[in-house]
Amino acid sequence: MTALLELADLRVSARSGRADREIVHGVDLTVEAGQTVAVVGESGSGKSLTMLAVMGLLADPLHLTGGAVRLGGRDLTALSERKLRAIRGNDAAMIYQDPMTSLNPLMRVGDQVIEAMTAHGVPKAEAGRRMLDLLARVGIPDPKRTARAYPHEFSGGMRQRVMIACALAMRPRLLIADEPTTALDVTIQQQILALIDELRRELGMTTIWVTHDLGVVARLVDRVVVMYAGHVVEDAPVRQLFSAPQHPYTKALLAALPDPSDDDRPPLAQIPGRPPAATDPVEGCPFRPRCSQAVDACATRPPLQTRMQGRAACWVPPHEWRN
Amino acid sequence: MTAAVAGQQVPVAAPPTRTAAWRRLLRSPAGLVGAVLVALVVAAAVTALLGMTPYDPIAQHPQARLQPPSTQYWFGTDQFGRDVFSRSLAGVGNSLRVAVVAVFLSALVGTTAGICAGFYGGKVRGPVLAVTNVLFAFPPLLLALTLAATFTRNWLTIAIAIAIVYVPIFVRVSRGPVLSLRETDFIKAARVLGIPTWRILVRHLLPNLAAIVIVQVTLSLSWAVLTEAALSFLGLGSPPPAPSLGSMCSTPRFWLVRPGGTWRRRAPSSSSSWSGSICWATGCATLSTREMDATHDGSPW
Ligand SMILES: Nc1ncnc2c1ncn2[C@@H]1O[C@H](COP(=O)(O)OP(=O)(O)O)[C@@H](O)[C@H]1O
Ligand code: SF4
Ligand SMILES: [Mg+2]
Predict the structure, then answer these.
(1) pLDDT of B6-38, one tens digit each?
(2) How far is B28 from B26, CA to CA, in rounded Å?
(3) Domain boundaries in chain B?
(4) Mean pLDDT over residues B214-235, rounded?
């Protein structure tokens, strides 16, 4: 397998006054072509910023302060905005949170899907034909008529379907789904997840699911990358991650998942302590203030090291963990 | 809802259709009155600009100077025996032509500059806002006077002078909303889809800015009519003998003290303030209908 997406020591900072506050502290991540990966972590751990950096969409005050983003071997950080624009929506697409407000309220839904194609050079007539197929494919009833509707006539779920049609119109190789269902009802969430997963299979897209809720996507992915405070702390095949977590934070995350088969466990075990602001200055291991396994060595930052089939950034291996 | 798919329906601003907007305008008393008045003024202007006034507005009838209103000369005649009704129509035509061109130019330039300053920030914002602030620092009439005195005067250069004075208003009015529109999800979504920036500006940003620019256009039209009248009142409008509401108000000042002279001042000055107040009325009507919209659909304007 070849790597479709490679992030090497990716750093994102926010300018505030004259100083730069680093928020994403050197993410290393490789996604093989055809693979499906989940990026998990509490809100504020820098997942979205990492993905925006991949798309070349960091906007002031955010900016890249280091590292490389390689898509199909090409370093995107070296590209001009024009070339990046040609890649966005074409080679790499993104679906994200807020379908309620992500469509232009003054433009017909069908035209918005068409525009996603004409922007990349598809002739208008062909784009119009493909738009109808796309709307039908994402489950919009009666596409001919609904294409002429305005977004306010649609429910959140329907709008997310339209956004999916826009994102997938150019058959991108890489799809980033950044919490695409967080704003939706639970029942609709499942429909949308299933739809994206089906389309992923159909188009053979390499897919990154970004979520703060591992339970939602665990069934859909091959691999899980756990982020904490702007660091990757563990990266492992999904089975291994569940059966043998290599990082205390991963273990705590798993313990916080509701488990319907276990009545004794409180539905949401809490991780003690406060999730850090990604910008808090950290010495040593970023998880140390909340870690029950911390030892003296943790005053130095642990590097990502190979552990079984994956990698983890922790000085203390699981067999030495207390309790 | 068009299609029955489960999910929550959240009310969001609906794009108003044109017929609905007209119906709403004509249903409100202010809107109706405004529409009728505007229609009258526009009819007068068109009549004059097509040369369909009862008399040539600059033709002198020496045998009929300073006539009171009559069936022959509806508003009477001035000191050169020119028909005041025809001159009033022509004055309205001139005012409107100047105002429309001035506002069109300032809206075009100001909105473009405002959008660029708002959307690009950084390198564009600085110079645009600097020029805007300098222009704002002058009292508008003084600036218009200075500019009008600088150019060779005809209706077009006067329109341009007024346009320059009004540009900063459009910069201000459009930049603010662009700053917030730029951060909206649908503009970001358009960038995520790789839609070119010029297209985002024209197809996504501009339509969502249109409502607020249109309100400003209607208000500015009324101000521009008054500014033009003020310039010509002060002798810096269209040079004589061209009919202009402002100079028509100004010239007969000297005749006011003459017996029987009082009414002569009235026709042009009242039509000037008429067209001004009429545009105001439309502006207000537009605003109030907008406000009604805003209250029932929660849209920002
Ligand atoms: N525009 C911004 N300016 C400054 N800080 C930001 C900005 N956007 C996000 N951040 C900070 O970056 C951190 C990570 O944000 P984000 O990547 O959105 O987290 P996640 O997607 O994991 O929930 C947050 O703590 C947030 O405070
Ligand atoms: S390195 Fe130390 S503090 Fe960090 S997770 Fe491992 S044990 Fe806990
Ligand atoms: Mg996020």
Answers:
(1) 333 334 455 666 777 788 878 888 778 878 888
(2) 6
(3) 44-297
(4) 86
Q: A249-268 burial, b if ≥16 CB within 10 A, otherwise e?
A: bbbbbbebbeeeeeeeeeee
CATH number for the segment(s) B44-297: 1.10.3720.10
A3-99+172-320: CATH number: 3.40.50.300
Q: How is chain A split into domains, by residue range?
A: 3-99+172-320
pLDDT digits (tens, 9 = 90+) for A262-299: 555 554 456 777 776 655 666 889 999 889 899 999 99
CB contact under 8 A, B189 and A102: yes
User: Which residue is closest in CA terms to ligand 1's atom 4?
Assistant: A14
- ∠ CA B172-B174-B180, nearest 5°, is 105
Pocket of ligand 1 (CB under 6 A): A 14, 23, 41, 43-49, 61-62, 277-278
Kindly report the three-state secondary structure assignment for every residue of chain A: CCEEEEEEEEEEEEEECCEEEEEEEEEEEEEECCCEEEEECCCCCCHHHHHHHHHCCCCCCEEEEEEEEEECCEEHHHCCHHHHHHHECCCEEEECCCCCCCCCCCCCHHHHHHHHHHCCCCCHHHHHHHHHHHHHHCCCCCHHHHCCCCHHHCCHHHHHHHHHHHHHCCCCCEEEEECCCCCCCHHHHHHHHHHHHHHHHHHCCEEEEEECCHHHHHHHCCEEEEEECCEEEEEEEHHHHHHCCCCHHHHHHHHCCCCCCCCCCCCCCCCCCCCCCCCCCCCCCCCHHHCCCCCHHHHCCCCCEEECCEEECCCCCHHHCCC
Tokens 């799809």 correspond to what residue? A175
Q: What angle do CA A135, A163, B174 make, to 5 degrees?
A: 125
Q: Do A104 and B7 touch (CB under 8 A)?
A: no
Tell me, rounded to whole angstroms, the distance of Cα A314 from its chain centroid. 23
Query: CA nearest B131: which of B175, B179, B98, B180?
Result: B175
| Minimal-distance CA residue of chain B relative to A106 | B15
Q: Is A204 in contact with A123 (CB distance < 8 Å)?
A: no
Q: What is the ipTM of this complex?
A: 0.87
Q: Does A144 touch chain B (CB under 8 A)?
A: no
A46 CA distance to ligand 1 middle (Å):
6
First to last CA, chain B: 23
**Strand order through the sheet with A62-71:** A19-32, A3-16, A62-71, A74-75
The closest alpha carbon to A58, from A117, A10, A119, A115, belongs to A10
CA angle B97, B103, B105 (to 5 degrees): 100
- Average pLDDT rounded to a whole number, residues A90-111: 90
